[in-house]
């Protein structure tokens, strides 16, 4: 395939990224501001031999993509806050059954119906633990239309690699913004591996921090997949504390133990920085401008952008910020990832939040004035 | 369980190492299992091509005992999962096992929409008029006045007739029988399997432990006799008044009217708008291209 | 021949209720789980297999004598 340049919306870039990653199944339910993804998928999927289905609600959308994933497809759904709330039940199911799925959340003002056409980053904690129980997912936060494309592909690859739900935590601004993107000629895609058919095959017999190759239905494995606590055979085992401890610990550790390895971090001006602005998603754009302006004023300010927010790359961040005494984090919420940054870096640096809600993005000036406060 | 010398004729379809199953003595779920295997044997379907999906509840435990690919999902959502499973690989025959609460209370929305789409699923809805797994609460099919742990003074709710709901929503094959009629149930499941479209077989089933105990029909045998005494056919029901129909189980084929199936329509789009055959993309996640 | 698996039988007696030839009768015979498994009169059996369809616990096998 030849390299291509396109001028598209973030929503369209997500859809194109999904198809480029090999996704051939979409199930979803209309919701602002992510509806364009469903619309584009409904148009494109039949042209590449894929299936689109508009479900009766978001609960069934995730149910359908999990079913399709077990049939052997790479799958995606797209939604926004109210939809994600409904999806939590089956996201938890995907987590315990280790089903690769990708959920794109075009975040909007919330809680509840909130501000359908305005941006927010207020679902970041929900992304991690919105479903009940101990579990871990992976969440990426694109800050540009190009990243909508790139991170969606990355999301599919991570979902396959770790057999886990992966959430693309975009937002209304990035979803509706149009920018030039480059579709590269080569796209790295991680295919699924069919397990070997052996006697007494154990579908969930994984080491402590890992997962197993995922079988497909209709291949003769005769697997049993259940949301109940299950043993290595996949059979329910709901009374044995050891079985539960082993399963849930593994589900968390297969992600947490790779948090630095999979980190997707961009940095600028860190070398001598004593103040560092850490951002993720759309505020990163204003953050970088503000950091550059501060540098022009001769201030020692650095920039870190987290591409993957969950799992949180603790050790890597500690390393990168070791010489900084002040951390500033701009977020479109009242302080969510700020709490995590403070937990990890608060012992050696003063962590300050620049919170903004209501729908508008931080201006570079707002971030710059915070930098200049000291 | 150890290997048996003279196993039940359907033991070959079961994960025998998981037996005995968790169902209470006299529970209809075991009978429904038998009728599913009986139906597959009578049909033109191959057991090895069957996948099963279920929600949450006693009857939803059935697929866990069947030696096939089985997806035991979340409460009420079996049809949503089955929809994705079937669309993504329509070459497999998908049986959904669900209960009255699972299918028509928490999953009611999914039921009507799967029926509306006429997706090729064979749904076996085991209706015991009560929530067994959680200890005997009323369900959307509990008869008015029946007792349950959440209806200590008798149910004040008007019950659903699941078969009528499925028929009205657009299912193309719907039949209802009781576990006292295992041959009829088997035939209906066979017809449902062979119907290319949404089929629902409602099996009125006994929960002696909760429904029976709460409603003074104490033994499995009593419940079976109660079914037999109150079962009438659709034809008989035609000439009966609403008062006469109270407490009656109206059995028979509610509808058998094939129409265009959902996945076929989706695949038509692929045929029309691409040069790819839909089956080329089955299990595409495993392809590296 | 009738084979009744004591390990699987839960003593519901639906076989007693279903059999058109009254092959099965309740008994006081306890298996090791304390279930009163039914007793059966093989001479009355016509191998209609209704009991195997009706047995919820897959505990009965009716096989041809040979």
Q: TL;DR of this structure?
A:
By secondary structure, chain A is α/β, with parallel strands linked by helices. Chain A has twelve helices and 16 strands. The model of chain B has no long low-confidence stretch (mean pLDDT 97).
Would you give an account of this structure?
The complex is a heterotrimer of chains A (374), B (289) and C (66). Chain A has helices at 10-20, 35-44, 58-71, 81-97, 124-129, 145-162, 172-176, 241-256, 283-296, 314-320, 337-345, 364-372, and strands at residues 4-9, 23-28, 51-54, 74-79, 101-109, 115-119, 138-140, 165-171, 178-183, 224-226, 265-268, 275-279, 301-306, 308-310, 326-331, 350-355. Chain A is α/β, with parallel strands linked by helices and 374 residues long. Chain A folds into two domains: 4-183, Thiamin diphosphate (ThDP)-binding fold, Pyr/PP domains (Rossmann fold), CATH 3.40.50.970; 265-372, Rossmann fold. In chain A, strands 2, 3, 4, 5, 6, 7, 8 and 14 form an eight-stranded mixed β-sheet that branches. In chain A, β5 and β6 (115-119) form a beta hairpin. In chain A, 55% of the residues are buried. Chain B has helices at 29-42, 78-88, 100-106, 108-117, 162-169, 182-194, 208-214, 220-230, 234-238, 242-245, 262-273, and strands at residues 50-54, 69-72, 93-99, 122-127, 130-131, 137-138, 173-178, 199-204, 231-233, 249-256. The longest helix of chain B is centred in the N-terminal third of the chain and has 14 residues, at 29-42. Chain B contains eleven helices and ten strands. Chain B is 35% helix and 17% strand. In chain B, α6 (182-194) links the parallel β7 (173-178) and β8. Chain C has one domain (2-62): Alpha-Beta Plaits (2-Layer Sandwich), CATH 3.30.70. Chain C has helices at residues 14-18, 50-54, and strands at residues 2-4, 24-25, 39-40, 60-62. Chains B and C meet through α1, α6 and α8 of B and α1, α2 and β4 of C. β10 (224-226) of chain A pairs parallel with β2 of chain B, so a sheet runs across the interface.
